[in-house]
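Ticket #4471: structure export looks truncated?
Reporter: QA, pipeline team
Priority: medium

Steps to reproduce: submit the single chain below to the structure queue and open the exported record.
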Amino acid sequence: MRERQASHGARRVREFEAFVAGAAGRLLHAATLLTAEAPDDNPRARRLLTLALAHTYARWDRLRGEDPYERARQTLAVRFAREAWHQHGVRVRARPAPPGALAALTPQERLVVVLRLYEGVAEEQAAALLGLPVERVRVICDRSIAALTHAPARGAPAGHGPKVAPS
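Actual output as written to the record:
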């Protein structure tokens, strides 16, 4: 009996390690986009990834045909949303302004953009995951895209238009 349990445990570990080898990079990138941290300095993203992978591993035997990547992505998104909700209105330790265009978006906007555009999650699935109406997800995504495409160029000082001499 113990041999069978040990064999099952070893197989479970091998399967999970193979999953992590294939999915961790993409999940870390998604977490980094969510947190708007720099790719080389992303402690919040790494913590989110670790928690999502730990949760996926804990449920590994119960996935039964469910896509483990989908489960890990869902856990990542839910944990990010919870963290953003708890930090809303709470003063957090100041960090330098995060790099990248997504830093200009709110956490909810980043979550919708990452799910819809980076991960390719359908509007209906994103809405169900976030507990929002489909139309709301569509509006948030459209507004976020508009904000990203019409954002001023980084590093360009304000008022860099043509100078008009006073008359």
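Status: closed, not a bug. The export was complete when the record was re-opened. Leaving a note from the reviewer for reference: The CA atoms of residues 79 and 130 lie 11 Å apart.
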